[in-house]
Amino acid sequence: MTEYDLKLIQKYQPHIANGELKIRYNLQLKSLSFVKNLDIKKLTVEYCQNIEPKLKNKNIKELKINTCGLTNIELQMKNLKVLNLEGNNIKQISTSGLMNVTELNISKNVKINIIGLQKMRLTKLTMNLCDVDDLSVLIDMDSLEELNISGNTRVKLQQLKQMVQLQRLNISNNNIQNLSVLESLINLEELNISQNVSIDVSSLKYFVKLSKLNASDLELRRIQFLLELPNLLELDLSYNCRLDYQLLQNMVQLTLLNLSFSALKNIIFLNNLVNLESLDISNNNVIRLEPINQLVKLTYLNVSKCNIKSCNFLRQLVNLEELDISYNPDINISVLNILCKLKKLYLFSNNLKDISILKFLVNLEMLGLSGNKQVVIAPLQYLCKLTHLQLDDCELYEVSALAPLTNLQFLNLYNNNIIYSSPLQNMVKLSSFSLYCNKVQDLFAIMHHLNYDQYTLSNQNQPSNNEQQLADKMDSVHQSTTLLIKINGKRKNNSIRDLHQKALTVFEKLKTSHSFFASQIVLLVNALSARQTDQ
Prior knowledge:
Helix content: under 10%
Number of strands: 24
CATH topology of the largest domain: Leucine-rich repeat, LRR (right-handed beta-alpha superhelix)
Structural class: mainly beta
Shape: flat
């Protein structure tokens, strides 16, 4: 960060969205001292590899510093409640100044020393993939209610047996063979034991308060133990291909069931599960889906990659709010107009051309159509409630049909043949937008007065190198925008490289009058340029 940039940040109060400030991919950022007096409640710093590990602020309640290469950290934040330090190289945490923290995430800090954590009044601790083996310091943490120690294959579960207050426990992917040492944890309500192949699950019958169980990818052969869990409501048995699932027909209390990747051929047993609200049977070559038609309480259904041809099994599911029928290339979607409560619909790679039926789904907020080559998008103009739209890899040439969708916040047009982006210029609510891999000639036509968090440009597009045009467009960016101008270093693309230089020149001229936001864009462009040079 240059001297000018520091002065600029101190001079201008940045626009804080909902009390939150995000800083990402800034290789020039050295210090977070400018945050000291900001009136913010949440700060996120990610992929900033050169920052000093010191921070003061009396207002911040939630702090996330992820993947910044920190080896230590000093914090003076008396009101901090939630601290996330995932993905660094921290070996020891000083708990002084952190006594009010109740939720701590130190995941992916390999071989971190957790001695001292018992001094904190934590209710939630996440430390997956830390390569720890000694958990004895946790014994005295009597306020701890939720613990995640997944991905620590050397961990000793015996040290947890005294933590009878635990309500939520994640011990997935820990190479565990036996659960008997945890039989004392009778207050457990949520348990994740997934990816512990060949584990003995017979002890699960002692956890009678369990309402949520993830037992995916265990190579299970028998599930009789489930019948002894009367309070179980949510069950994940995905990636278990050797089970006889007929026993599930007796678990009528279930509200959520995940059987994806389970080699299902027959789902008649679902007939009895009339209380299901969420069902995932994706990635199964199911022959008949008619039993689903009886599950009228369903609000979420995922049947992607099930070799579906007809959607008639959906006719009675009028309460569906989220539906994923992606990757069924021969599917007929003509009955979807019945599902008028749908808010989220995913139709990825379904070989669709005609989607006129979708114009009746006026409550849609999220729609995924990626991978449908040459799909005709004209019907989308009627879906004015859309906030998220994915149209990447659809071989689109023009996007005028999207002009009425002014509520869009997320738009992905990656890998199409779009030449003009001007029909999108009134989408003032966009916060994330990608034109990666297109043939756009008016890249900055839609930049005026937009509120992007991320605006992704790329090679294959053809931006104007007119310095005055860049100045006119960039001078009007009033929000905290991340301008990502991606370059493939293995290719020669003079127009994009020239754009880097032009952008920097323009910002140099604007710096006397421009706000914090322009400075942030300059830093990010500089950071990405430096990154590219290193590569």
